[in-house]
Amino acid sequence: MDELARALEATLFASAEPLTIEELKLHVGEGDVEIALGELSAHYEGRGIELVERGGRWHFQTAPDLAHLLRRTREEVRRLSRAATETLAIIAYHEPVSRAEIEAIRGVQISKGTLDVLMDAGWVRPAGRREGPGRPLLYATTQEFLSHFGLGSRRDLPGIDDLKAAGLLDPLDDSAFQLQLESEEEAD
Fold this sequence. Notes:
Layout: H1 3-14, H2 21-28, H3 33-44, E1 49-54, E2 57-62, H4 82-94, E3 97-98, H5 99-106, H6 112-120, E4 124-129, E5 137-141, H7 143-148, H8 160-165, H9 171-187
Helix pairs in contact: 1-3, 4-6
C-alpha cells in the first residue's frame, strides 16, 4: 500500500463523519485520491469493515453481513412516572417555563429528580433565565424530544380536540384545561 493510500486510510479511520474527496485532499494533499480510494476500497473488500462511498462521501462501515454482531446491546426501556410525564407535557406546551410555573400548573411541587430524568433522557434542556426577581431558570424541549415523538416542530403537538378524540381528556380534565387556556388568553 502506498503512502497516499495509508494517509487516506488514517484520515478516514479517524474521521467522525464521512468525507468528500475535496475534504480528503485538504488532509492528505494533492494526488490521485480517487485512484487511491479505489485501491483502498478493493483492499478492504471481503473484510469485517469496508470502505464505501455514499452520496459523494467516503467512510468505513461494518460489513453488512456482520452488522448483526453489533446489535446485541439492548436499549433498556424506562417508563416515565406520572409526574415526569405531566412535567414534560407542561414544558412542551408552555416553553420556556420555570420550575415555579410548572408547579403552579401541576398544583404540586416537583422533585428535583423529575427534571433530572427528563434532562438525562435528552428531552428537556435549560433555556436561559427569566428576567425578573430571582432570575429563575427556564426549561424547554430539545430536538431529541421532537425526534423521539415523531414531531417536526412544537406546532405538531396534539391540540385539545386531538386529545379529546383520543380519549385522553375526561370531562373534569377538559374543564380544567379550558380554564387554563382562557386564563392564558386573558394574560396575552
